[in-house]
Amino acid sequence: PIADNAGHCACSIAVKNSYPRQCTPLINVVSDPNSSEKKILKVHFEALEHAAVEPFREAPRGRAPADNAIIFLRLEDMAKKGQVQKVRPEDCPIVCEICLVDKAASPGNASKAPRDPNSPDLHQRFRVTVDCRPVNRLRLVYDSLQRFVYTATPCDGIKEVDKPRLAKQFLTTALLQIQDIPKSRVKSFGRLDLQHAFYSLHLSEGLSRLFAVAAKDPSSRRVQHYQFNTLVQGWKFSSLLFGLGTLKVVN
Question: Which residues form a coiled coil (predicted)?
Answer without folding.
Answer: none
